[in-house]
Specification:
The protein is of the alpha+beta class. It contains 5 helices and 13 strands. It folds into 3 domains: 97 residues, Beta Barrel (Ribosomal Protein L25, Chain P), CATH 2.40.240.10; 79 residues, Ribosomal protein L25, C-terminal domain (RNA Polymerase Alpha Subunit, Chain A, domain 2), CATH 2.170.120.20; 39 residues. Strand 4 and strand 5 form a beta hairpin.
Length: 231
Amino acid sequence: MKKILVKADKRQERGKGGARSLRRMGVLPAVVYDNGESTPIKVQGKEMTNLISSGVGEHSLITIELNEDGAKSSEHPVLVKDYQLDPVSDKLLHVDFIKVSLEKSVKVMVPLVIVKQPAGVKLGGILQYRLREVEVECLPTQIPDRIEIDAEFIEIGNSLHVSDLEPLQGVKIVTGPGEVILTVSAPVVEEVAPVEAAVEEAAEPELVKAKGKEEEEPQKEQKEGKKQKEK
């Protein structure tokens, strides 16, 4: 796994005003949590935004290189615990990190990526996702960037379950084995009305009109007969 290094400085700016001031300078306020203690820090906004938006930083081990008063720096292995986005612009506003031990297992969510499409999709089936990621347990240094799925054997009407995933060395999948990852359903066929029925429906108004004309003739003759008698 490639090492992700993020440089940071201790943060003196506090409160909403201080946070807004940092963001105007392209710097992002953040906090590192460690066994009940918290350390306010600041990181480069563009760098952190790229990590979060790509999905890599949200699931991977990150090494914070913390600059302490400009004299020395220290490295801290962390995971992204949470982050805050602007509700209107979706701009990254704040990040919470949690410090981890490289010798203790952690539980994280890892994205699933299909590398081979199901055979049923090639035959016209409809692919439906149920899970986009699964929870795994492993050492921080063994967290996979993603879990690749070979779904080529899935036919129309069948499903792929967590139990079908290939095991990874040193990684335990915590998500239940019976959970469905994806299904391939049969395509929906629209019913077409029979041609004969359509012809009959179109012909029926003509018969009504013809019948109406036939009924008008006797009525006309009766009126003419009355006029002759009156004369």
